Structure formats: C-alpha cells, structure tokens
Amino acid sequence: xxxxxxxxxxxxxxxxxxxxxxxxxxxxxxxxxxxxxxxxxxxxxxxxxxxxxxxxxxxxxxxxxxxxxxxxxxxxxxxxxxxxxxxxxxxxxxxxxxxxx
Length: 101
Known about the structure:
The chain is mainly α. The chain has helices spanning 2-26, 34-58, 63-79, 83-100.
C-alpha cells in the first residue's frame, strides 16, 4: 500500500514539473504576438474565476442568496471597486436574502 501511495506522489510531482518546465524548454525567445501575450496574461484570472464562481453559488443555504450576493458584489465592484466595501455589501445582501427566504 505504501509503494502505491509513493508512486502516485511521484507521478503528480513529475506531471507538475513537466507542466512548469516545458514552456521554459520549448520557448527560447520572447513571445511577440499581442494575442498570445494577452491570452497568457488573463489565464490566471480566468482560472481563479472558474474555481470561485461555483463556490459562491453553493456556499449559502439557498442558490438565490448566493446569486444575489454575487450580483451585489459585481455591482459594487463596478461602481466603487473597494474590496472591503464589495465584500461587506455582498455579505449583507446574502444575509438579507436569507432573512427573506
């Protein structure tokens, strides 16, 4: 059983190493294409959004309260942009919707 666990760990380590090392090995010169540069610039933001959005909707007892908090957060971020006010506003919206439902 221990050998099986260690081999899984080894496979994960090699996989992660290859994903990180292959771009360094394959790309020798600077990327000049504006499309590829902008694509690579936004990949971390998209990855974080894809992981976070489902958790926002399922973190509350009701789908509607999660959606209301998300929409309130988006609206507050669009208008103000202050992270503290956005998070407080989204939490207050979830609380109010949970009280109503």
